[in-house]
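In response to reviewer comment 3 from the previous cycle, which asked for concrete evidence that the modeling workflow produces usable outputs, we include below a single protein chain processed end to end. The sequence was submitted unchanged, and the resulting structure tokens are shown without manual editing.
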Amino acid sequence: MINIEVEKNSNESNASLIRRFTKKVQGSGILPRVKSIRYSKRSLSSYKTKMKTLESIKRKAEIMELIKMGKMTATVPGQRRGKGKVVKK
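The workflow returned the following structure tokens.
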């Protein structure tokens, strides 16, 4: 942990003291490090990753089954629409 300390000199205004403190904080590089920690996401645990993968595999199997049954149309490569369109009968 880095502590930054600034003492007021004689004949120095409060504004210049704050300005000097701000410059020291910027020079130390504390703020970018704190902000990177603040906005970074935690990586998923191996269990969560595994569950997410199994979920996506299950969903892909369901979609393939719907396509085979004719309830969903297969997408055309290069089309920007999503997985397919559900056909209501």
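The radius of gyration is 29 Å. We consider this sufficient to address the reviewer's concern, and the full set will be provided in the supplementary archive.
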